[in-house]
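Example record

The entry below shows one chain as it appears in the dataset: sequence first, then structure tokens.
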Amino acid sequence: MANQDKLKIKLQQTKTIMIMKRMKNIVLIAATLLSTAVFGQKLGHINSNELLLAMPERTSVENNIKKYAQDLESQLATMTKEYQAKVQTYQSQEATMTDAIKSDRIKEITNLEERISDFQQSAQKDLQKKEETLLKPIIDKAKKAIEDVAKENNYTYIFDAGVGVLLYQKSSDDIMPMVKKKLGLL
């Protein structure tokens, strides 16, 4: 069971890390722009996290990712049960085993431990790749809508308030309503 808990924690951590990685480029651009003079420029801001949460496709993607994670957890549970059964059998029969059989069973158990460990690492990577693949179209759609709104309304820069980079926004317009309209969410 500890292996399942570890996988669940790693899966949650991976999701958080992926969101942060996606926002990394936006943060770097925003930080650079905030440190330069942008007088006479039309500025706007949007909370990309809020936008992504408002997109209906997100629910489907989250359900797909959750189902995939559950499938991986199920496979891990099966492997863990097999491991526990082998350990229990070994412990109950150890006194009657010859040294050769003991050595063979220990080797089997050790190999199964390695398979479980390899599976956990592989599952982590597979889940991350699946999440990236499923989220990419949604992120691309949101990015295109933001770019379209910025171009249509002559914005020079759009800052992402969702990542906590925007510290002051006196002369900045919130373009969320326009992007939501562009995506058909209003």
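Notes for this example: The chain has one domain: 2-182. The beta strands are 43-46, 157-160, 172-174.
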